[in-house]
Amino acid sequence: xxxxxxxxxxxxxxxxxxxxxxxxxxxxxxxxxxxxxxxxxxxxxxxxxxxxxxxxxxxxxxxxxxxxxxxxxxxxxxxxxxxxxxxxxxxxxxxxxxxxxxxxxxxxxxxxxxxxxxxxxxxxxxxxxxxxxxxxxxxxxxxxxxxxxxxxxxxxxxxxxxxxxxxxxxxxxxxxxxxxxxxxxxxxxxxxxxxxxxxxxxxxxxxxxxxxxxxxxxxxxxxxxxxxxxxxxxxxxxxxxxxxxxxxxxxxxxxxxxxxxxxxxxxxxxxxxxxxxxxxxxxxxxxxxxxxxxxxxxxxxx
Length: 302
Known about the structure:
The chain crosses the membrane at residues 12-38, 88-113, 125-148, 154-171, 209-231, 265-289. This protein is mainly alpha-helical. The chain is 70% helix and 0% strand. It is built from 13 helices and no strands. Helix 2 (15-32) packs across helix 4 (78-114), helix 4 crosses helix 11 and helix 4 (78-114) runs parallel beside helix 13 (266-293).
């Protein structure tokens, strides 16, 4: 396991990791501090004026200094909606990965340690889950949810539903990763010693084996946050994600897509650029973590 000082040294010696880390930090701070620094609250109807709709960025002819990146069809400042929308996208991405991790780590730990028919059953279940498209399963589940409840109820529970649907659909990736690590760890001497002194299986799994399997979990978590954000953006673009009055980055892109050919390109372009920057920075940091924490997988090495 790499020491903290070596970890920090490796980070500051890698320009790609520094760049990705700075971009991610800026986006996270922007989302967290949105209620304090955003020029406008896009959720407050009293701050919206339909007469301000589809205004271009402030440096374009017809722009307004109040709206640096222009406004959308509802008169909301694009910069403000991006700040709030980034927070919602991050919340759904992190929340979905927590659900994935809880399910995947638990089932992977049990499968790897117990073995036998329990391992076979859980891994076949994971294979079936992986054979199904996450996006397809999410579309079916969310379409049924929208059909079963009215628009207000859906808006209230959209974040929870997206977190649960994406989280449940992606648990096998954590389960298979943890299981493979457990299979290697349970044959080591410290596990045999724990069994000899009479420790229960539950304590051996959670207290001794699990801490030694968290390195690959950390790597996959970073990448899975990016994937969850992309899945949510895809669902929102299809109209099955966040409602337009509580937009994520995906629903912001969707809301402006129909205005691209009418000249209001900024409504879609800027949220799309932020989404690309967010996902790319998470993926680059995930790749960097993989290389640092797993020396055998470093680029250029076999």
